[in-house]
Structures are given as structure tokens and as C-alpha cells.
Write a structure and sequence with these properties.
The complex is a heterodimer of chains A (339) and B (491). With 339 residues, chain A is mainly alpha-helical. Chain A has one domain. Chain A is built from 13 helices and 2 strands; from the N terminus they run H-H-H-H-H-H-H-H-H-H-H-E-E-H-H. Chain A has a two-stranded antiparallel ribbon with strand order 1-2. In chain A, 60% of the residues are buried. By secondary structure, chain B is mainly α. Chain B has a two-stranded antiparallel ribbon. In chain B, strands 3-4 form a two-stranded antiparallel sheet. Chain B is globular and about 75 Å long. The chains are: A mainly alpha (339), B mainly alpha (491).
């Protein structure tokens, strides 16, 4: 196989890892005002993702860095072209990351409410915008012969792209609810499970619409198979949640996201960023790629490091396997405010 | 340049300067404090002395407040190259992208995963393994520093590449040459040692503050543990500073000589040395006209610059004017029209000169502060007079600001180049991004960073003022026997 194809696949793997992992911690943040009825419950939710959200987020940093290294032209066109959406995502990731760490650091309610808002907004924005961004990559955007993006911000907000945003948002909501059901105990667990089923059905409708549209637009046999599998996994996940089998339900949404994203990359190949302009240049795995030497070096690093990362990240989930419920949350120490 | 002239290039440069200097306020503390906190924890495990555990918890909390901002501002750094500097990314992506990707894979995963394990793992992991998590976080910060500095060193002294006229870009031919760039080999120790120095100063400053305060609260300290504990912290901090400062000075000296070799203009600018001199004096302080043509007052140390630049007190140091001629011959092409006239390759002399001096001056002031503190804490003594409060506040600021000026110097001194000798800054900017877009991003990020700085500082001061918790019970490992056992740590 061509090195450029291998790297296209590796970048797909990184995005799959990102969406399947950070997808649920986005979902937990998005559902904070819905599932967390009081401060205790909100703390339960936040603590289910507390030890892992940061590691999940690194997947996007590595995806970005790997794109820079393996497909510099893609990185340059994408990041300079999707400027304002990426700025919004940056702002969201900043306030969200700080919020997790700072929220519990002061006892007063206004402080907590503000950081809750940061978590909610900071989770919704990227959940929607990543979908919008990927839909645009698939559909093609105005890129001129010099590989420069020549559209504006509103070029990116086509109905298809907005549907893509709706899909990532609803999928992450479902995924997050499944995760809360899996990782908590008590009343919130049951509410999360019931909500996951309802959200899952909405996500399924959006998924059929968006993936169908994508298939008609740019699909091939491989993407069709993956999309069908993704939809099947979603329905299986919903069914499992309905039967109270939370572990399998979460596996279902995890697989849905993984297969769906894989399908999108298969539909995209061999382009990495097609142009919608007649005289424009589409970026492909070959014309956007780094040299074979760089790809070779990067392949060695990726082959050695990725399994190691997977092992220790997986181990983290094992260490924090315990379900959390409201009575596990320690009282904020009274000494905090007294001194 | 007037306000209305501001174009995407100017704004992108401002944004890079602001976001980078801001990001690097948190980075050195993260690098250094992860090691100190891990060290305190190891000391606790080895000795069983509760004071070490209290210090671990206390500085661990401060570490996390600082880490959060370092992490989130780091994401901006990675995105920024593509967003604002896409032509740069296209031109050197084949070389520059690799260390960034490796940094993510090797360092960021390690840091974030094991920090999560450390924060939440007090009751989930055996003590030794839990402590190892923080050491792995520290290892991650060192990996991270190595790869990002290798990328920066390439910009100062491009190696291991070939220009390919067919693709119109610089292409990697030797990855190890990039990783073992001679600029990198001296920059990495310099940056890491200054990070240790900064974190040492932070710990020492906080401890001195507590010692000064403890005097007024002697009644509260019924067990008499506060004073010895903070004295310990003050001394560990000061020793870390002092030992690290040796590394900073030695590596800095090597850097000066290598800089003279690979970027002579930067050295000349650091010294505002217009004409070649042999031997060259080192100017401690100069007041003159801004263009350097007229000197009004100068305090100099004879022969010192010759030594710094060439390792020989009688060595010749080239001046800006002859270097300009030489650069014109070597690089021929004009250095970009935005800020430079044809044939001019001179960075901003005023900024280079003063940032270089402030970096060194603040660094040496930090060393003096560390020595003073070690003297004041000798043989069981502890500084408690309120006169020491000023040291508590200024000690961390000295290396912290020295870091900022060091980066300002090294980046300003490279101008007009983005990659020395290969690509100028004004050709690096994204052609497809409008001034309005970059301005939006500059305003949004600066405002957000400003708010977060206030929040972070207030939180930090709150927790510093509160001091270490009076008692820390060693956490017993959760054996999963009691399903209702509360979490040892929760957000």
C-alpha cells in the first residue's frame, strides 16, 4: 500500500479515536443541565469524565499534528480556510477545559453556575461545529488552483453541513447519555438510560438522512457498507439500552461513531479536501502529502507509539471502572470557606 | 505604522506574540513543578513524614490550577500555524509537522493520561505507582519541550532539509539532524533548566510568604509544624533554583557562541553593536538615540562580549553594518517588503537589546534571591520578618519574566526570518485569511486570555493564602469492599 494511503488511514483512525472518545465527554457536558438536576448530580456527571476527558482531547491534537506532518497542504488549507469555526472550537475547548478544573475550586453558587455554563457551551459548540466542518470537507468547498480556500464563513453553513452538525450533536448526546448510564448509579443512571434511548432514535433519523445524502453525493460501495453497519450498531445500541444492558449499549454508540467516521473517510478517499470550483485544485492524498521520507519516519513512530498509548489509556478506564453515584461525592470541605 | 494600516500580517504577528508569551507563563511552571511535586511525594513515601505529604497536596493543587491554563492555551499554539501562517505550514510542513505530531503522540498523551490518574488515583493505585504517575507527567513535559524546541531550533538554524524546486518547499532529508540540531542541543537544557528555576522560585516564594504569615498566626500553629514544613519548602525551592541556574548559565553561554556562529545578526542586535569590534565590550546599559548612531551614556564591561560570543576575550565580534552587507551577499533576495528595505536584514535593535538584558538581569537577580533565601534559612532559621514578603512576591516573577524576555529576544532577533535564511515572516502568513478574521481572533483570544488570567491569579492567590491543609491522612487504597466509599478526590 502507498504510504500516503496508510497515512490517510491513520488520520482517519485518529479522528475516529477523537470522536468516539471525546464524543461521550462532549455529550456529558451537553447534557449537564438536562441530567444533572442539582449540584451533586452535576458533580457525579463531571466526575465520570474527570480522569479521562483530557486524554480524550489529545486525540484531536495528534490528529492535527499528524495532518500537519503527513499532509501539510491539507493542514494549511483546512486550518486557514475554516478559520472562524476553528476559532470558535478553540474558544470552546479553552473555557471547557478550564471549567472542569476550576469549577470545584470555590464553594459559591455563582462561580459554579458560570463554569457549568462554560462546560455546556464549550461542549455544544465543538459537537456541532466538527460535524459542520466534516460535512464541508466531504461536500467540497471553494478552493482555488493555488489550494487556497476562497469561500467565506457562511459558505460553510449549507443545509448539508448543518445536517452534519446535527448528526454529530445528536450522536454525541446519545453517546454521552449511554456513558452516564454506564458510569453512574442511582436515579441518574435510570434517567440517563431512558434519555439515551430517546436521543438515540433522534440520532438514528438524522444519521439516515445525513449518511444517505453523503452516500448519494460522494459514496462508494465501501462507504455504503460502513454506513449500514453504523446504523445497525446504533439501533442495536438503542435496543441494548432499552433492555438495561448499558455496557453493550455504550459499545453500540462507540461502534456507530467509529464506523460512521470510517465510512466518511472511505467516501472522501482519495481526496482529502475536494474543491467545489470548476478551475480549482482538489487536495488529494498525493498532492497534499509530505515526502515519502517524512511519512516513513512518522510511520515508525506511529507503529511503535500508538499501541502503547492505547494500552495505558485503556488501563485508565480500568482503574476508574467504578460507577459513581451521589453518595460517592465527598462533601465540599467546610474548611474551604471558613479559613 | 498607523492604526489604519494594520493588515493581517501585523495582527497575526501580534497574535503569535501574545498567545506564545502567555502560553509560556504556564509551561515552565508545569515542567518544573511536576518534578517538584513528584519529588515531594517520593520524599513522603520514603520517609513517611506527613509534612512531605502536605506539601505534595498543597503544591499539587497549585500545579493543577496552573496546568489547566497551560493545556488549553497550548491547543491554540498548534492550530495557529495552520490558521494564521498557512504559507509557512505549506513551505516547512514536511519538516516542522513531524516534531509536532511526535510531540502529541509521545508527550501529550503521556501528560494528560497520567495526570488524570494522579489527580483521581489517590485511592485507586498503590502509593508507588501513584507517585510514578506524576513522574511520568514530568517525563511527558520533557518530551514535549524537546520536540517543540527541535521545531523552533529548525527555525533558528535549519538543518536536515533540502529545498525542492519542483514542489517549491523545504523537505526533510534527515530527521535526526533536526532532532540533534546544535541549536537544539543547547536550547533544550537552557529552557528546561529555566523551567526548573521558575518552579523552584514559585515554590520558594509561596513558602516564604507562608513563613512570613505564620509569624502572625503563631497561636494557630499549635503543633509547631508549619514553620519547619514551609522552611523545607523554601529551601527545596531555593536549591532547585540554584542548581538549575548553573545549567541555565552554562547552556546560555554555549547558546551565545552558537548563536554568533549561526545567527550573527542576532548577537549583534542583542548588543546593538553596529561596527565590528575586536575585542568587543559588553554593554550593561546604554542610553542613546534609537537608531544607535549616537551614544549618550553607556556602562560597559571590556572584552566580555568577545568572550560570550567567541569564547576568547580578544575575539572579533561582527557588527550590524558589515553583517548587513554579508547577508545581502549570501541571501541576495530582499527580506520582505512589509517591514524591510532591500538589503536590510536587521531585527528590531531596541527590542533585541533590552529583552536580552532583561532576560539576563532578571535571571541573575533570581540567583541572588535564591542565595539570600538559603542564607536566611541556614541552620534552622526561617525568615519571618515582613521585609521578606517582597522577596516572596518578586522571586517567582524574576525567572518567569526572564523566560518571557528570553523568548521575545530569540524570536525578535530572528526577524525578518521565519526560518532563518529560507523564508521571511511576511511570506509566511495565510493569504486566504482576511485582516478582519485575524483581528477577530486576536480580540477574542486576548480578551479570553485576559479574563482567564484574572481568574487564575485570584484562584492561585486564594489557595496560596490558605496554605497547606493542617492534616493530610494518607489515603487508604480502595479495595472495592465498601460500595459506598466516597471518592478520594472529586471535581
Amino acid at each position: 500500500m502507498e504510504l500516503t494511503t496508510i497515512w490517510f488511514a491513520l488520520i482517519a483512525v485518529l479522528w475516529i479515536g477523537y470522536f468516539a472518545l471525546e464524543g461521550f465527554d462532549f455529550g456529558v457536558g451537553m447534557l449537564l443541565p438536562v441530567l444533572g438536576r442539582d449540584d451533586r448530580e452535576r458533580r457525579v456527571m463531571i466526575n465520570t469524565i474527570g480522569p479521562v476527558w483530557d486524554g480524550n482531547e489529545v486525540w484531536v491534537l495528534v490528529a492535527g499534528g499528524a495532518t500537519f506532518a503527513a499532509f501539510p497542504e491539507w493542514y494549511a488549507t483546512l486550518f486557514s480556510g475554516f478559520y472562524l469555526p476553528l476559532l470558535l472550537i478553540l474558544v470552546a475547548l479553552i473555557i471547557r477545559g478550564v471549567a472542569f478544573e476550576y469549577r470545584a475550586k470555590q464553594p459559591d453558587d455563582a462561580w459554579k453556575r458560570n463554569w457549568d455554563l462554560a462546560i455546556i457551551v464549550g461542549s455544544w459548540l465543538p459537537a456541532v461545529l466538527w460535524g459542520v466542518a466534516f460535512a464541508n470537507i466531504l461536500r467540497g468547498v471553494p478552493i482555488d488552483a493555488e489550494m487556497e480556500y476562497v469561500g467565506g464563513f457562511f459558505t460553510l453553513l449549507s443545509p448539508y453541513a448543518l445536517l452534519g452538525g446535527a448528526l454529530t450533536a445528536t450522536l454525541f448526546l446519545t453517546h454521552g447519555a449511554m456513558y452516564v448510564a454506564l458510569k453512574t448509579d442511582g436515579e441518574i443512571r435510570h434517567r440517563a438510560r431512558a434519555l439515551a434511548v430517546r436521543l438515540g432514535l433522534v440520532a438514528a433519523v438524522v444519521a439516515v438522512a445525513f449518511l444517505g445524502w453523503t452516500q448519494v453525493q460522494t459514496g462508494n460501495a465501501g462507504s455504503a457498507a460502513l454506513f449500514v453497519l453504523a446504523a445497525g450498531c446504533l439501533l442495536a445500541g438503542i435496543a441494548m439500552a432499552g433492555q438495561g444492558r448499558e455496557g453493550w449499549a455504550f459499545v453500540g454508540t462507540f461502534a456507530t461513531i467509529a464506523l460512521g467516521v470510517a465510512g466518511l473517510f472511505v467516501a472522501l478517499f482519495p481526496d482529502v479536501m475536494p474543491t467545489s470550483l470548476a478551475g480549482g485544485t482538489s487536495l488529494t492524498t498525493t498532492n497534499a502529502a509530505a515526502t515519502a521520507y517524512t511519512l516513513k519516519i512518522m510511520t515508525v513512530v506511529a507503529v511503535v507509539m500508538t499501541p502503547i498509548v492505547l494500552v495505558y489509556q485503556g488501563w485508565t478506564y480500568w482503574v476508574f471502572r467504578k460507577r459513581i453515584s451521589v453518595h460517592h461525592i465527598p462533601e465540599a470541605r467546610l474548611a474551604e470557606s471558613a479559613r | 505604522m498607523s492604526y489604519v494600516d494594520l493588515d493581517a500580517l501585523d495582527i497575526a504577528r501580534w497574535q503569535f506574540a501574545i498567545t506564545t508569551v502567555y502560553h509560556f507563563l504556564f509551561v515552565p511552571i508545569t515542567i518544573g513543578l511536576s518534578a517538584i511535586v513528584a519529588g515531594y511525594q517520593t520524599a513522603w513515601i520514603r520517609t513517611g513524614n506527613e509534612q512531605w505529604l502536605r506539601l505534595t497536596r498543597f503544591f499539587g493543587k497549585l500545579f493543577l490550577i496552573n496546568f489547566a491554563l497551560g493545556l488549553v492555551t497550548g491547543i491554540v499554539q498548534e492550530f495557529q500555524f495552520g490558521m494564521n501562517w498557512s504559507d509557512y505550514s505549506r513551505f516547512v510542513g514536511d519538516i516542522f509537522g513531524a516534531p509536532l505530531a511526535v510531540e502529541g503522540l509521545l508527550a501529550f498523551f503521556l501528560e494528560s493520561t497520567f495526570l488524570g490518574l494522579w489527580i483521581f488515583g489517590w485511592d485507586r493505585l498503590p502509593r508507588g505507582l501513584h507517585n510514578a504517575c506524576m513522574w511520568l507527567v514530568h517525563l511527558g513535559t520533557l518530551f514535549s519541550a524537546y520536540f517543540i524546541l527541535a521545531a523552533n531550533s529548525f527555525m533558528q538554524n535549519p538543518v536536515g532539509y533540502e529545498y525542492n524546486p519542483d514542489t517549491g518547499r523545504a523537505e526533510l532529508v534527515d530527521f535526526f539532524a533536526v532532532l540533534l540540531n546544535k541549536v537544539q542541543l543547547v536550547t533544550f537544557p537552557h529552557v528546561v533548566m529555566s523551567a526548573y528555576m521558575t518552579a523552584g522560585a514559585f515554590v520558594a516564594g509561596v513558602a516564604v510568604w507562608q513563613l512570613v504569615r505564620a509569624k502572625g498566626r503563631a497561636a494557630a500553629d499549635t503543633e509547631g509544624t508549619e514553620r519547619p514544613m514551609y522552611r523545607r519548602a523554601a529551601r527545596t525551592g531555593a536549591w532547585v533554583m540554584l542548581v538549575a541556574s548553573v545549567g541555565v548559565v552554562v547552556s546560555g553561554d554555549f547558546q551565545g557562541k552558537i548563536m554568533t556562529e549561526v545567527q550573527p545578526m542576532k548577537m549583534a542586535a542583542a548588543e546593538a553593536l553596529y561596527e565590528t569590534e575586536q575585542p568587543a565590550p559588553f554593554s550593561l546599559f546604554t542610553i542613546g538615540s534609537l537608531d544607535g548612531t549616537e551614544e549618550k551614556l553607556a556602562i560597559t564591561v571590556p572584552n566580555l562580549l568577545s568572550f560570550l560570543a567567541t569564547n576568547d576575550f580578544e575575539g572579533e565580534v561582527e557588527g550590524i553594518n558589515p553583517l548587513r552587507e554579508r547577508y545581502l551577499e549570501t541571501y541576495g533576495q530582499d527580506p520582505g517588503e512589509a517591514y524591510y528595505t532591500a538589503g536590510d536584514y536587521t531585527p528590531n535593535i531596541w527590542l533585541s537589546y533590552w529583552s536580552f538584558r532583561l532576560m539576563m538581569g532578571l535571571g541573575f537577580a533570581g540567583i541572588a534571591g535564591a542565595l539570600a533565601l538559603l542564607w536566611a534559612t541556614r541552620r534552622g532559621r526561617a525568615p519571618t520578618s515582613t521585609r521578606w514578603a517582597w522577596l516572596a512576591v518578586s522571586l517567582p516573577l524574576m525567572p518567569l519574566l526572564a523566560n518571557s524576555f528570553g523568548w521575545i529576544f530569540t524570536e525578535v532577533g530572528r526577524q525578518p526570518w521565519a526560518v532563518f535564511g529560507l523564508m521571511t515572516v511576511d511570506r509566511s502568513v495565510s493569504p486566504s485569511v482576511s485582516a478582519g478574521e485575524v483581528l477577530t481572533s486576536l480580540v477574542v483570544l486576548t480578551a479570553l486570555y485576559g479574563v482567564l488570567a484574572v481568574v487564575e491569579l485570584r484562584l492561585l492567590l486564594h489557595y496560596i493564602a490558605k496554605g497547606a491543609d493542617p492534616h493530610e491522612e494518607p489515603v487508604v487504597r480502595d479495595d472495592d469492599q465498601d460500595p459506598d466509599r466516597p471518592l478520594a478526590f472529586a471535581y
